[in-house]
Amino acid sequence: FPTRRSSDLQEIKGSGNVAIFLRKERHLKRIRELGICIVLIFAILGSSTKVEASTSVKAERTMKIVDVCRNNYCIYGVYPSVCLAQAILESSLGDVCRPNNYWGLNQGKTCYASLEDGVIAYLECINNGYYGNAPRATNYRDQLYSIATGGYCGSNWFWYWETCVQIIEENALWVYDQNLPAISAIHAERK
After folding, report:
1. Which of 25, 56, 91, 172 has the most crowded Cβ, counting Cβ within 10 A?
2. DSSP conformation class of 102
3. What pLDDT, in 10s, does the model give residues 139-190?
4. Cα atoms found within 13 Å of the Cα of residue 95, Cβ hemisphere only
5. Angle value at C-alpha 135, between 132 and 140, nearest 5 degrees
6. Res 85 pLDDT > 60
7. How many other CB atoms sit within 10 Å of the CB of residue 166?
8. 3-state class (DSSP) for residue 129
9. Cβ atoms within 10 Å of 66's Cβ, excluding its own
């Protein structure tokens, strides 16, 4: 905001309307300050509402993915943490993708009717034979290694593997892998 110099005030004092002008200036200054505060408050409240809504949506997505992975673990053998880490890396957990294709399946061109359909398509993809022992891995690191070296992410497999592991460990996603059936139970159910 422009400020008044003392020479400006001297010119104004000579006009006889000094008191009125100074009161108006103080009121305008207060109004500007108040206006800025109000704008900042709305900006903060507005953004926190968006963050809360976004966080709530992501929490719902996370739990849906975890539920589908856990309910189908004996069939597909994919750890929920691996599924989540890849969804976070590939699409920021669904923020940047076609509907319900959080993993960029079919070069990201496919849409799925529901998140559950998208998760099942991902689980089937990991079990298509390209990713070696991924469905039989005994921990998320080994599973991600098989997926990454199997070509899921192209030639930059080490970066992909390392980034997914980091996502799992920094966000404690491994907790979703606890109390899953033993690998032998998966092989028995597939037969």
Report:
1. 91
2. T
3. 999 999 999 999 888 888 999 999 999 999 999 999 999 999 876 655 555 5
4. 10
5. 105
6. yes
7. 12
8. coil
9. 19
